[in-house]
Amino acid sequence: MSATTTWKCPQCGMDWAVSNRKCPADGYVNMPACVSLVSAKTGKVADISASARLGKAVFKQRFADDDAQFASDEQFEIVRDTDAVAWVLRHVAGARNPTYYNGAEVPPGGCELVTGGVISVGKSRMRLTVQFK
What is the mean pLDDT of residues 96-119? Predict the structure, then answer.
């Protein structure tokens, strides 16, 4: 099975290389419609289709993970950045524990999410695997 190397713009109908995240002809943004976060501990999933801030209450309700106690009310945000044509993770200033992505603290400007990436509160709590739909 070969990897997909092109995508078809639904607006203009032209094929473009996957490296073109935005259609050069009409500006259509080619990015996943939804980010799915999967709890490593419980296997429960939360789908995010618009920019959102997540924290303790969401972690308790959606993931049923007792590690939610280590998160702040607002721990991090996931942003659908159409300028960068990417889903971006940003730590919320004032959260009591740092947010990590793939084992490194999220930088002040945030970082791009990729399939299989792991978000955590601190180095090891509330481990959430990133998937796209």
Answer: 97
